[in-house]
Protein backbone atom coordinates (compact mmCIF):
# COMPACT_ATOMS: atom_id res chain seq x y z
CA UNK A 1 0.00 0.00 0.00
CA UNK A 2 1.36 3.42 -0.98
CA UNK A 3 0.67 6.78 0.63
CA UNK A 4 0.78 10.25 -0.85
CA UNK A 5 3.41 12.70 0.49
CA UNK A 6 0.69 14.78 2.17
CA UNK A 7 -0.64 11.71 3.99
CA UNK A 8 2.86 10.81 5.13
CA UNK A 9 3.50 14.31 6.46
CA UNK A 10 0.15 14.41 8.26
CA UNK A 11 1.03 11.18 10.02
CA UNK A 12 4.48 12.51 10.89
CA UNK A 13 2.92 15.66 12.33
CA UNK A 14 0.43 13.60 14.35
CA UNK A 15 3.28 11.52 15.80
CA UNK A 16 5.20 14.70 16.65
CA UNK A 17 2.25 16.23 18.49
CA UNK A 18 1.84 13.04 20.52
CA UNK A 19 5.33 13.45 21.93
CA UNK A 20 5.66 14.71 25.52
CA UNK A 21 6.43 18.45 25.66
CA UNK A 22 9.70 17.87 27.51
CA UNK A 23 11.13 15.50 24.88
CA UNK A 24 14.49 16.32 23.19
CA UNK A 25 12.69 16.66 19.86
CA UNK A 26 10.59 19.51 21.25
CA UNK A 27 13.74 21.44 22.22
CA UNK A 28 15.16 20.70 18.76
CA UNK A 29 12.06 22.22 17.17
CA UNK A 30 12.41 25.33 19.33
CA UNK A 31 16.08 25.78 18.38
CA UNK A 32 15.26 25.26 14.73
CA UNK A 33 12.53 27.89 14.48
CA UNK A 34 14.54 30.36 16.61
CA UNK A 35 17.48 30.08 14.20
CA UNK A 36 15.22 31.12 11.32
CA UNK A 37 14.13 34.39 12.89
CA UNK A 38 17.30 36.44 12.10
CA UNK A 39 17.21 35.24 8.48
CA UNK A 40 13.65 36.18 7.57
CA UNK A 41 12.27 38.64 10.11
CA UNK A 42 14.29 41.65 8.81
CA UNK A 43 12.75 41.05 5.38
CA UNK A 44 9.28 41.14 6.94
CA UNK A 45 10.00 44.43 8.67
CA UNK A 46 11.36 45.94 5.48
CA UNK A 47 8.46 44.71 3.35
CA UNK A 48 5.94 46.24 5.75
CA UNK A 49 7.82 49.55 5.54
CA UNK A 50 6.97 51.18 2.23
CA UNK A 51 10.19 53.20 2.04
CA UNK A 52 12.35 50.07 2.22
CA UNK A 53 10.24 47.81 0.00
CA UNK A 54 12.11 48.27 -3.28
CA UNK A 55 15.66 48.13 -1.86
CA UNK A 56 14.83 44.94 0.03
CA UNK A 57 13.17 43.46 -3.03
CA UNK A 58 16.32 44.17 -5.06
CA UNK A 59 18.54 42.58 -2.39
CA UNK A 60 16.34 39.47 -2.25
CA UNK A 61 16.39 39.14 -6.04
CA UNK A 62 20.18 39.35 -6.14
CA UNK A 63 20.75 37.12 -3.11
CA UNK A 64 18.07 34.49 -3.81
CA UNK A 65 20.54 31.66 -4.39
CA UNK A 66 22.59 32.58 -1.31
CA UNK A 67 19.50 32.83 0.91
CA UNK A 68 18.27 29.49 -0.42
CA UNK A 69 21.61 27.89 0.39
CA UNK A 70 21.56 29.27 3.93
CA UNK A 71 18.03 27.98 4.56
CA UNK A 72 18.91 24.55 3.17
CA UNK A 73 21.97 24.45 5.47
CA UNK A 74 19.78 25.35 8.46
CA UNK A 75 17.34 22.56 7.63
CA UNK A 76 20.16 20.06 7.26
CA UNK A 77 22.19 21.07 10.33
CA UNK A 78 19.43 21.74 12.87
CA UNK A 79 16.59 19.51 11.71
CA UNK A 80 18.27 16.71 9.78
CA UNK A 81 16.19 17.34 6.64
CA UNK A 82 17.92 17.41 3.27
CA UNK A 83 16.17 19.64 0.73
CA UNK A 84 17.53 18.79 -2.75
CA UNK A 85 18.74 21.75 -4.76
CA UNK A 86 16.13 23.08 -7.20
CA UNK A 87 16.47 22.92 -10.94
CA UNK A 88 18.29 25.55 -12.93
CA UNK A 89 16.35 28.82 -12.54
CA UNK A 90 15.55 31.22 -15.33
CA UNK A 91 18.34 33.75 -15.90
CA UNK A 92 17.61 37.45 -16.30
CA UNK A 93 20.41 39.68 -17.62
CA UNK A 94 20.49 43.25 -16.31
CA UNK A 95 23.34 44.79 -18.30
CA UNK A 96 26.36 43.76 -16.22
CA UNK A 97 24.44 41.56 -13.77
CA UNK A 98 23.02 38.09 -14.32
CA UNK A 99 20.38 36.93 -11.83
CA UNK A 100 19.00 33.42 -11.54
CA UNK A 101 15.31 33.86 -10.76
CA UNK A 102 13.07 31.20 -9.28
CA UNK A 103 9.63 32.53 -8.44
CA UNK A 104 9.06 29.76 -5.92
CA UNK A 105 12.23 30.76 -4.04
CA UNK A 106 11.39 34.46 -4.22
CA UNK A 107 7.92 33.70 -2.86
CA UNK A 108 9.49 31.87 0.06
CA UNK A 109 12.01 34.60 0.92
CA UNK A 110 9.59 37.53 0.54
CA UNK A 111 6.33 36.07 1.88
CA UNK A 112 6.36 32.58 3.36
CA UNK A 113 9.68 32.77 5.20
CA UNK A 114 8.99 36.13 6.88
CA UNK A 115 5.46 35.02 7.85
CA UNK A 116 6.84 31.87 9.44
CA UNK A 117 9.51 33.95 11.19
CA UNK A 118 6.75 36.06 12.77
CA UNK A 119 5.12 32.84 13.97
CA UNK A 120 8.44 31.59 15.30
CA UNK A 121 8.98 34.89 17.12
CA UNK A 122 5.55 34.53 18.72
CA UNK A 123 6.42 31.01 19.87
CA UNK A 124 9.74 32.18 21.35
CA UNK A 125 7.91 35.02 23.09
CA UNK A 126 5.44 32.50 24.54
CA UNK A 127 8.40 30.50 25.86
CA UNK A 128 9.57 33.57 27.78
CA UNK A 129 6.08 34.38 29.06
CA UNK A 130 5.54 30.77 30.11
CA UNK A 131 8.82 30.62 32.02
CA UNK A 132 8.11 33.96 33.71
CA UNK A 133 4.58 33.01 34.78
CA UNK A 134 5.54 29.48 35.84
CA UNK A 135 8.09 30.89 38.29
CA UNK A 136 6.00 33.87 39.41
CA UNK A 137 4.78 32.21 42.62
CA UNK A 138 8.34 31.50 43.75
CA UNK A 139 9.51 35.03 42.93
CA UNK A 140 6.66 36.63 44.90
CA UNK A 141 7.46 34.64 48.01
CA UNK A 142 11.18 35.25 47.69
CA UNK A 143 10.85 39.01 47.24
CA UNK A 144 10.57 41.18 50.38
CA UNK A 145 7.04 42.51 49.86
CA UNK A 146 4.81 44.23 52.39
CA UNK A 147 2.28 42.06 54.14
CA UNK A 148 -0.66 43.91 52.64
CA UNK A 149 0.66 43.66 49.09
CA UNK A 150 1.44 39.99 49.57
CA UNK A 151 -2.13 39.43 50.76
CA UNK A 152 -3.51 41.24 47.70
CA UNK A 153 -1.49 38.95 45.41
CA UNK A 154 -2.67 35.82 47.17
CA UNK A 155 -4.58 33.66 44.75
CA UNK A 156 -3.51 35.69 41.71
CA UNK A 157 0.04 34.36 41.87
CA UNK A 158 -1.25 30.80 41.97
CA UNK A 159 -3.51 31.36 38.97
CA UNK A 160 -0.73 32.99 36.94
CA UNK A 161 1.65 30.19 37.85
CA UNK A 162 -0.86 27.59 36.67
CA UNK A 163 -1.28 29.50 33.41
CA UNK A 164 2.51 29.54 33.00
CA UNK A 165 2.74 25.79 33.52
CA UNK A 166 -0.01 25.23 30.95
CA UNK A 167 1.84 27.44 28.48
CA UNK A 168 5.01 25.39 29.09
CA UNK A 169 3.00 22.32 28.08
CA UNK A 170 1.37 23.89 25.02
CA UNK A 171 4.26 25.96 23.63
CA UNK A 172 6.45 22.96 22.60
CA UNK A 173 3.57 21.70 20.48
CA UNK A 174 3.26 25.11 18.86
CA UNK A 175 7.01 24.99 18.17
CA UNK A 176 6.60 21.55 16.57
CA UNK A 177 3.74 22.80 14.39
CA UNK A 178 5.74 25.85 13.32
CA UNK A 179 8.79 23.70 12.54
CA UNK A 180 6.63 21.35 10.49
CA UNK A 181 5.25 24.28 8.49
CA UNK A 182 8.78 25.59 7.87
CA UNK A 183 10.05 22.22 6.67
CA UNK A 184 7.08 21.62 4.38
CA UNK A 185 7.19 25.09 2.85
CA UNK A 186 10.96 24.82 2.32
CA UNK A 187 10.63 21.44 0.62
CA UNK A 188 7.87 22.76 -1.65
CA UNK A 189 9.35 26.17 -2.50
CA UNK A 190 13.13 25.77 -2.09
CA UNK A 191 13.50 22.27 -3.49
CA UNK A 192 12.75 20.95 -6.96
CA UNK A 193 9.19 20.98 -8.18
CA UNK A 194 7.34 17.75 -8.88
CA UNK A 195 8.46 17.53 -12.51
CA UNK A 196 12.10 18.16 -11.57
CA UNK A 197 11.92 15.62 -8.74
CA UNK A 198 10.48 12.98 -11.07
CA UNK A 199 13.12 13.74 -13.71
CA UNK A 200 15.87 13.48 -11.09
CA UNK A 201 14.41 10.21 -9.83
CA UNK A 202 14.35 8.80 -13.37
CA UNK A 203 18.00 9.76 -13.81
CA UNK A 204 18.90 8.08 -10.53
CA UNK A 205 17.04 4.92 -11.52
CA UNK A 206 18.75 4.90 -14.94
CA UNK A 207 22.18 5.30 -13.32
CA UNK A 208 21.36 2.61 -10.78
CA UNK A 209 20.22 0.23 -13.50
CA UNK A 210 23.32 0.89 -15.59
CA UNK A 211 25.48 0.23 -12.53
CA UNK A 212 23.58 -2.98 -11.84
CA UNK A 213 24.01 -4.18 -15.42
CA UNK A 214 27.74 -3.44 -15.24
CA UNK A 215 28.01 -5.25 -11.89
CA UNK A 216 26.17 -8.30 -13.22
CA UNK A 217 28.40 -8.40 -16.30
CA UNK A 218 31.53 -8.07 -14.14
CA UNK A 219 30.29 -10.89 -11.91
CA UNK A 220 29.68 -13.11 -14.95
CA UNK A 221 33.22 -12.43 -16.09
CA UNK A 222 34.58 -13.33 -12.66
CA UNK A 223 32.61 -16.59 -12.50
CA UNK A 224 33.74 -17.45 -16.02
CA UNK A 225 37.40 -16.90 -15.09
CA UNK A 226 37.07 -18.90 -11.87
CA UNK A 227 35.44 -21.84 -13.64
CA UNK A 228 37.88 -21.73 -16.53
CA UNK A 229 40.99 -21.47 -14.36
CA UNK A 230 39.73 -23.72 -11.56
CA UNK A 231 37.13 -26.43 -12.07
CA UNK A 232 37.67 -26.78 -15.82
CA UNK A 233 41.43 -27.21 -15.42
CA UNK A 234 40.96 -29.82 -12.71
CA UNK A 235 38.46 -31.78 -14.82
CA UNK A 236 40.81 -31.62 -17.78
CA UNK A 237 43.65 -32.96 -15.65
CA UNK A 238 41.39 -35.73 -14.33
CA UNK A 239 40.30 -36.68 -17.85
CA UNK A 240 43.93 -36.81 -19.02
CA UNK A 241 44.90 -39.08 -16.12
CA UNK A 242 41.94 -41.38 -16.77
CA UNK A 243 42.79 -41.48 -20.48
CA UNK A 244 46.39 -42.31 -19.65
CA UNK A 245 45.26 -45.09 -17.33
CA UNK A 246 42.88 -46.38 -20.00
CA UNK A 247 45.71 -46.65 -22.53
CA UNK A 248 48.51 -47.99 -20.30
CA UNK A 249 46.80 -50.44 -17.92
CA UNK A 250 46.44 -53.26 -20.40
CA UNK A 251 46.62 -56.05 -17.80
CA UNK A 252 43.86 -54.49 -15.67
CA UNK A 253 40.87 -56.77 -14.89
CA UNK A 254 37.92 -56.22 -17.26
CA UNK A 255 35.62 -54.97 -14.50
CA UNK A 256 38.17 -52.38 -13.39
CA UNK A 257 38.79 -51.33 -17.00
CA UNK A 258 35.05 -50.77 -17.51
CA UNK A 259 35.02 -48.48 -14.49
CA UNK A 260 38.02 -46.53 -15.84
CA UNK A 261 36.47 -46.20 -19.30
CA UNK A 262 33.14 -45.02 -17.84
CA UNK A 263 34.90 -42.52 -15.59
CA UNK A 264 36.95 -41.23 -18.53
CA UNK A 265 33.85 -40.71 -20.68
CA UNK A 266 31.98 -39.03 -17.82
CA UNK A 267 34.90 -36.68 -17.24
CA UNK A 268 34.97 -35.71 -20.92
CA UNK A 269 31.22 -35.15 -20.90
CA UNK A 270 31.57 -32.98 -17.78
CA UNK A 271 34.29 -30.95 -19.50
CA UNK A 272 32.04 -30.37 -22.52
CA UNK A 273 29.13 -29.30 -20.31
CA UNK A 274 31.33 -27.01 -18.24
CA UNK A 275 32.79 -25.49 -21.40
CA UNK A 276 29.28 -24.74 -22.67
CA UNK A 277 28.39 -23.29 -19.28
CA UNK A 278 31.46 -21.05 -19.26
CA UNK A 279 30.73 -19.93 -22.81
CA UNK A 280 27.16 -19.14 -21.80
CA UNK A 281 28.31 -17.05 -18.84
CA UNK A 282 30.76 -14.89 -20.75
CA UNK A 283 32.91 -16.21 -23.61
CA UNK A 284 36.56 -15.35 -23.23
CA UNK A 285 36.83 -14.64 -26.96
CA UNK A 286 34.33 -11.78 -26.56
CA UNK A 287 36.59 -10.02 -24.08
CA UNK A 288 39.82 -10.84 -25.92
CA UNK A 289 38.90 -10.38 -29.59
CA UNK A 290 35.60 -8.55 -29.64
CA UNK A 291 32.06 -9.07 -30.88
CA UNK A 292 32.97 -10.11 -34.44
CA UNK A 293 35.06 -13.09 -33.36
CA UNK A 294 32.58 -14.12 -30.66
CA UNK A 295 29.65 -14.10 -33.09
CA UNK A 296 31.68 -16.14 -35.57
CA UNK A 297 31.92 -18.85 -32.93
CA UNK A 298 28.16 -18.69 -32.29
CA UNK A 299 27.44 -18.95 -36.02
CA UNK A 300 29.74 -21.98 -36.32
CA UNK A 301 27.92 -23.79 -33.50
CA UNK A 302 24.42 -23.06 -34.82
CA UNK A 303 22.88 -26.14 -36.56
CA UNK A 304 21.81 -23.92 -39.48
CA UNK A 305 23.75 -22.06 -42.16
CA UNK A 306 24.38 -18.57 -40.79
CA UNK A 307 25.47 -15.68 -43.01
CA UNK A 308 27.22 -13.27 -40.65
CA UNK A 309 27.92 -9.67 -41.65
CA UNK A 310 29.66 -7.59 -38.96
CA UNK A 311 30.92 -4.07 -39.66
CA UNK A 312 32.22 -2.33 -36.52
CA UNK A 313 34.65 0.55 -36.78
CA UNK A 314 35.78 0.18 -33.16
CA UNK A 315 35.07 -1.68 -29.95
CA UNK A 316 31.91 -0.67 -28.13
CA UNK A 317 31.19 -0.70 -24.41
CA UNK A 318 31.87 -4.14 -22.86
CA UNK A 319 28.40 -4.35 -21.31
CA UNK A 320 26.74 -3.54 -24.64
CA UNK A 321 28.96 -6.10 -26.35
CA UNK A 322 27.80 -8.74 -23.90
CA UNK A 323 24.12 -7.82 -24.42
CA UNK A 324 24.54 -7.92 -28.21
CA UNK A 325 26.33 -11.28 -28.06
CA UNK A 326 23.73 -12.98 -25.87
CA UNK A 327 20.85 -11.40 -27.80
CA UNK A 328 22.07 -12.83 -31.11
CA UNK A 329 22.97 -16.14 -29.47
CA UNK A 330 19.47 -16.51 -27.99
CA UNK A 331 17.86 -15.39 -31.25
CA UNK A 332 19.75 -18.07 -33.20
CA UNK A 333 18.78 -20.67 -30.61
CA UNK A 334 15.11 -19.69 -30.97
CA UNK A 335 15.36 -19.91 -34.75
CA UNK A 336 16.90 -23.38 -34.57
CA UNK A 337 14.16 -24.59 -32.17
CA UNK A 338 10.99 -22.98 -33.50
CA UNK A 339 11.36 -21.34 -36.92
CA UNK A 340 11.95 -24.47 -39.11
CA UNK A 341 14.26 -22.30 -41.16
CA UNK A 342 16.93 -23.38 -43.63
CA UNK A 343 19.22 -20.33 -43.27
CA UNK A 344 19.72 -17.27 -41.10
CA UNK A 345 21.18 -13.85 -41.90
CA UNK A 346 22.79 -11.81 -39.12
CA UNK A 347 23.82 -8.18 -39.64
CA UNK A 348 25.65 -6.02 -37.09
CA UNK A 349 26.18 -2.32 -37.84
CA UNK A 350 26.85 0.95 -35.99
CA UNK A 351 25.21 4.23 -36.97
CA UNK A 352 24.57 7.43 -35.09
CA UNK A 353 25.96 6.12 -31.81
CA UNK A 354 23.67 3.07 -31.92
CA UNK A 355 24.44 -0.59 -32.51
CA UNK A 356 21.91 -2.18 -34.86
CA UNK A 357 21.43 -5.96 -34.85
CA UNK A 358 19.24 -7.62 -37.49
CA UNK A 359 18.49 -11.38 -37.46
CA UNK A 360 16.45 -12.69 -40.43
CA UNK A 361 15.38 -16.28 -41.06
CA UNK A 362 13.37 -17.93 -43.84
CA UNK A 363 11.23 -19.99 -41.48
CA UNK A 364 7.46 -20.32 -41.07
CA UNK A 365 7.04 -16.98 -39.31
CA UNK A 366 4.26 -16.16 -36.89
CA UNK A 367 6.58 -15.37 -33.99
CA UNK A 368 4.68 -13.66 -31.18
CA UNK A 369 6.20 -12.52 -27.88
CA UNK A 370 2.84 -12.82 -26.12
CA UNK A 371 2.77 -16.58 -26.70
CA UNK A 372 5.70 -17.27 -24.40
CA UNK A 373 8.48 -17.48 -26.98
CA UNK A 374 12.01 -16.30 -26.26
CA UNK A 375 11.24 -12.86 -27.71
CA UNK A 376 10.12 -11.53 -24.32
CA UNK A 377 13.50 -12.38 -22.84
CA UNK A 378 15.26 -10.74 -25.78
CA UNK A 379 13.23 -7.56 -25.31
CA UNK A 380 14.04 -7.43 -21.59
CA UNK A 381 17.73 -8.02 -22.28
CA UNK A 382 17.79 -5.14 -24.77
CA UNK A 383 15.85 -2.87 -22.41
CA UNK A 384 18.43 -3.45 -19.66
CA UNK A 385 20.76 -1.05 -21.52
CA UNK A 386 18.03 1.26 -22.88
CA UNK A 387 17.81 -0.70 -26.11
CA UNK A 388 14.78 -1.51 -28.26
CA UNK A 389 13.60 -4.65 -30.03
CA UNK A 390 11.10 -4.98 -32.86
CA UNK A 391 9.80 -8.13 -34.55
CA UNK A 392 8.31 -8.51 -38.02
CA UNK A 393 7.07 -12.09 -38.47
CA UNK A 394 4.10 -12.62 -40.80
CA UNK A 395 2.69 -16.13 -41.18
CA UNK A 396 4.75 -17.97 -43.76
CA UNK A 397 7.85 -15.90 -42.99
CA UNK A 398 10.33 -14.46 -43.14
CA UNK A 399 10.95 -13.33 -39.57
CA UNK A 400 13.11 -10.27 -38.91
CA UNK A 401 14.26 -9.29 -35.42
CA UNK A 402 15.78 -5.82 -35.15
CA UNK A 403 17.59 -4.70 -32.02
CA UNK A 404 19.08 -1.27 -31.42
CA UNK A 405 21.45 -0.70 -28.51
CA UNK A 406 23.46 2.35 -27.40
CA UNK A 407 27.16 1.98 -28.19
CA UNK A 408 28.13 3.50 -24.86
CA UNK A 409 26.48 3.57 -21.44
From TrEMBL:
GO terms for molecular function: ATP binding; phosphorelay sensor kinase activity; protein dimerization activity. The keyword Ion transport does not apply. One of its GO terms (cellular component) is membrane. Gene3D superfamilies: 1.20.5.1930, Histidine kinase-like ATPase, C-terminal domain. This is histidine kinase. SUPFAM superfamilies: ATPase domain of HSP90 chaperone/DNA topoisomerase II/histidine kinase. The chain crosses the membrane at residues 43-67, 108-140, 160-181. Residues 319-409 form the Histidine kinase/HSP90-like ATPase domain. It comes from Kitasatospora aureofaciens. SMART domains: HATPase_c (SM00387). It catalyses: ATP + protein L-histidine = ADP + protein N-phospho-L-histidine. The keyword Cell inner membrane does not apply. Keywords: ATP-binding, Kinase, Membrane, Nucleotide-binding, Phosphoprotein, Transferase, Transmembrane, Transmembrane helix, Two-component regulatory system. InterPro entries: HATPase_C_sf, HATPase_dom, Put_sensor_dom, Sensor_HK_TwoCompSys, Sig_transdc_His_kin_sub3_dim/P. Its EC number is 2.7.13.3. It is an enzyme of class 2 (transferase).
Amino acid sequence: MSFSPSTTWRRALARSLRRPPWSPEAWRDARFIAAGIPLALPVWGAVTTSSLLFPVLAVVLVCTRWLTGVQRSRLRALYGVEVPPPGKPATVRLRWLRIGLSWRQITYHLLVGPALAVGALAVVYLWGVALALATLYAWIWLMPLEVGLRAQLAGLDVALTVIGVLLLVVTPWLATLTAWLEVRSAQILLGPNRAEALERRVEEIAESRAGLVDAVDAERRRIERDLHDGAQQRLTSLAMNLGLARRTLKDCPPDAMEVIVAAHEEAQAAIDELRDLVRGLHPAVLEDRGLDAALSGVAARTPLPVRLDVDLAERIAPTVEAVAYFTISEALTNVAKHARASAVDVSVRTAGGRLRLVVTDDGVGGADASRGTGLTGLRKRAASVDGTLSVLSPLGGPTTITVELPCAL
